[in-house]
């Protein structure tokens, strides 16, 4: 039965290069736990750490008839150990200088990692750099728009009408064209009356920020983006609770 030894060169959270190797895995394990996640661009556990394919600079897989690293003898006469330089080990394995060890990376890694939506998002924002919009704007825009979409979908799910007539009734005032702020306040009042659930207060600064970001192209400061995203997460959690309530 063949065994497989895997080495990766990756970058840690600080962007510093790191090398790691594991020995003695079965074919099924390497396929299911390393190769498939790598090709599908999904994180996987390796040597006690979670790595994402985007942080991997190189991956090498070798086959041998022994699973114990200490039974694999390098050209310098030493058995493989944690004390050996990983680059030296990989180079010896690749060059065929180690008896009974064969490279087989491409038997498992059949293609580069798939491109996922984050790459599309990067391409989109790079195309908009001439407008002066940055990642704070894109993240804040996503969060702000998600607020409106989430409230709209939940209102439909709970049969709460947010048209001009019903928003006006719920707010007890004449509404010409209900804004999201009007709809949110009407939704909040209905939920309070129907289920006695308090919705998060849409603070004045968030109301103003919505107009500035979505309609004026304002790049929020990092702390402003954090405030918007934090509120949105809390709102989604509250709506999820309402969704589950009878």
Detail the topology: elements first, then pairings.
Layout: E1 3-11, E2 17-25, H1 27-39, E3 44-46, E4 49-51, E5 56-64, H2 86-95, E6 102-103, H3 105-108, H4 117-127, H5 135-157, H6 164-171, H7 180-195, H8 204-216, H9 222-244
Antiparallel strand pairs: 1-2, 1-5, 3-4, 5-6
Helix pairs in contact: 5-9, 6-7
Summarize this structure briefly:
By secondary structure, this protein is an alpha+beta fold. The chain has helices spanning 27-39, 86-95, 105-108, 117-127, 135-157, 164-171, 180-195, 204-216, 222-244, and strands spanning 3-11, 17-25, 44-46, 49-51, 56-64, 102-103.
What does this structure look like?
The protein is of the alpha+beta class and 246 residues long. The protein folds into 2 domains: 3-114, no CATH class; 118-244, no CATH class. It is 49% helix and 14% strand. It is built from 9 helices and 6 strands, in the order E-E-H-E-E-E-H-E-H-H-H-H-H-H-H. The strands form 2 sheets. The protein has a 4-stranded antiparallel β-sheet. Strands 3-4 form a two-stranded antiparallel sheet. A hairpin with a 2-residue loop joins strand 3 and strand 4 (49-51). Helix 5 (135-157) runs parallel beside helix 9. It is elongated and about 85 Å long. The mean pLDDT is 89.
């Amino acid at each position: 039965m063949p065994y497989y030894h895997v080495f990766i060169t990756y970058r840690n959270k600080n962007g510093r290069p790191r090398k790691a190797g594991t020995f003695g895995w079965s074919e099924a394990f390497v396929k299911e736990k390393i190769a498939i996640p790598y090709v599908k661009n999904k994180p996987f556990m390796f040597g006690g750490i979670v790595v994402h394919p985007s942080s991997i600079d190189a991956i090498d897989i070798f086959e041998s008839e022994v699973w114990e690293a200490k039974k694999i003898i390098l050209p310098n006469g030493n058995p493989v150990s944690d004390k050996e330089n990983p680059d030296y080990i990989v180079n010896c394995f690749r060059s065929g200088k180690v008896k009974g060890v064969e490279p087989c990376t491409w038997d498992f890694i059949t293609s580069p990692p798939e491109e996922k939506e984050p790459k599309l998002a990067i391409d989109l924002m790079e195309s908009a750099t001439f407008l002066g919009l940055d990642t704070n704007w894109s993240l804040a825009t996503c969060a702000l728009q998600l607020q409106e979409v989430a409230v709209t979908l939940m209102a439909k799910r709970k049969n709460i009408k947010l048209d001009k007539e019903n928003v006006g009734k719920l707010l007890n005032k004449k509404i010409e064209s209900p804004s999201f702020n009007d709809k949110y306040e009407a939704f909040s009042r209905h939920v309070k009356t129907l289920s006695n659930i308090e919705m998060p207060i849409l603070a004045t600064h968030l109301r103003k920020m919505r107009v500035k970001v979505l309609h004026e192209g304002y790049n929020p400061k990092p702390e402003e983006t954090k405030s918007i995203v934090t509120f949105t997460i809390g709102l989604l959690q509250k709506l999820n609770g309402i969704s589950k309530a009878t």
